[in-house]
Amino acid sequence: MKKTKSTAAFKKAKTFFPGGVNSPVRAFGSVDGDPLFIAKGKGSKIQDIDGNKFIDYCCSWGPLILGHAPSAVVKAVNKASANGLSFGAPTVQENELAELIIKNNKYIEKIRFVSSGTEAVMSAIRLARGYTEKDKIIKFEGCYHGHADHLLVKAGSGLATFGTSSSAGVPEAFANETIVLPLNDTKAIEKAFSTFYNQIACIIIEPIPANNGLLLQGKEYLQYLRDITKKHNALLIFDEVISGFRVGFEGAAGYYGIKPDIITYGKIIGGGMPVGAYGSSAKIMSKIAPDGNVYQAGTLSGNPVAMSAGKAQLSQCLKKGFYKSLEQKTKILCDGVNQFATREKMPFKMISIGSIFWLRFSKNEIKSANDIDPKSMNSFRKLYTCLLENGVYMGPSGYEVGFVSAAHSDDDIKKTIKVLKDGLKKALK
């Protein structure tokens, strides 16, 4: 695999950016290499600046559910951008995307567009505090909700990749308002509500935790969270930045049939463009300015280009059988590798939900961050080298999940199964 140009570009990038990157996990630090600089993508494939081509299962960390540069999205972006990139004023594109989402999602009545998943979650937390007039929040170890100060306490994702559970620069006073509990532990939640009686504004959870491995929780646990928050007049927030529009148009809320109080969404609603959103009932959303006294704003919120891209992408997701087809492809991929791993008695299993999957170097069920053996990342590191050398690209961390898109073909899946089989032989020999 040629890497001359990527290596040179990374060397130059280090003179401009901390660690040479603008988001930490891109540095390839956990897979013993320098990052590849991507030049272009089309369908299920990407190509780096050295000309290496890969079947891509990172999909820009999830939002590219149609694959790279789908014609409908590109056409919509070109049309919108020709009329201007940003106005800082209302546009009909905002109405159109909001109507498309709300008409097909019974779990929200009103929505507010922002510019990122982090911003969506930060705003949702502020809304919960403003609505309940309480300060403390409960989050779970291993769940990642963006890099806002009060949520970077024992977070997942990149923080796990880089071996730390929090970030410098987060004031202790902020951290004190965040109660961090282990996943799948109802007694810990009951104790928290007892200890901080009438002080807890909300519980926030990834209903499908997918930022520190794929830590699938049972429906009964999510229902328990719904019930206990109602009991204590707290709100339940589903962070669906990853799962929203991925496991179904109504996300995890629809998948499990559980209605949270607030839902956050990420870049999938913008076809990969920088965008996020949070939504709730009309009653709760009435607290947001200018209707209410919870302030949140953004010059680029509802950007017309992103709105147009989102409408084009989500319209495709509404086609009959779209999500069933994605799930079937993902199942074929996972089953093909799992049958091999079982036959070879390997400590490995691919687990999935919808079109999200995770490479788990353990035969045991993993439901919390503490269940993951850090030593297993050594096996992922060896596997990752084999994947790249054989034309398969995934996120450069064993804690991250992968994504199947509508653009992945049967041949892509077959090749990936073979590459994973060969890679596992080397990684686990």
Please supply descriptive tags for the structure shown above:
single chain; 429 residues; alpha/beta; Aspartate Aminotransferase, domain 1; Aspartate Aminotransferase, domain 2; four-stranded mixed sheet; 14 strands; 14% strand; globular
Please explain how this structure is put together.
This protein is 37% helix and 14% strand. By secondary structure, it is an alpha/beta fold. The protein has a 7-stranded mixed β-sheet with strand order 4-10-9-8-7-5-6, sandwiched between helices. β11 (349-353) and β12 form a beta hairpin. The longest helix has 22 residues, at 322-343. It is globular and about 55 Å long.
> Main beta sheet, described?
7 strands, mixed
Fourth-level CATH superfamily of the largest domain: Type I PLP-dependent aspartate aminotransferase-like (Major domain)
Average pLDDT confidence is: 93
User: What integer value in Å does the Rg equal?
Assistant: 21 Å
Find the structural class using helix and strand composition. Answer: alpha/beta
Write the layout of secondary structure elements.
Blueprint: H1 4-13, E1 38-42, E2 45-48, E3 53-56, H2 71-81, H3 92-103, E4 110-114, H4 117-132, E5 136-140, H5 158-161, H6 172-175, E6 178-181, H7 186-195, E7 200-205, H8 219-231, E8 235-240, H9 251-256, E9 262-265, E10 276-280, H10 282-285, H11 304-317, H12 322-343, E11 349-353, E12 356-360, H13 376-389, E13 392-393, E14 402-403, H14 410-427
Parallel strand pairs: 3-13, 5-6, 5-7, 7-8, 8-9
Antiparallel strand pairs: 1-2, 2-3, 4-10, 9-10, 11-12, 12-14
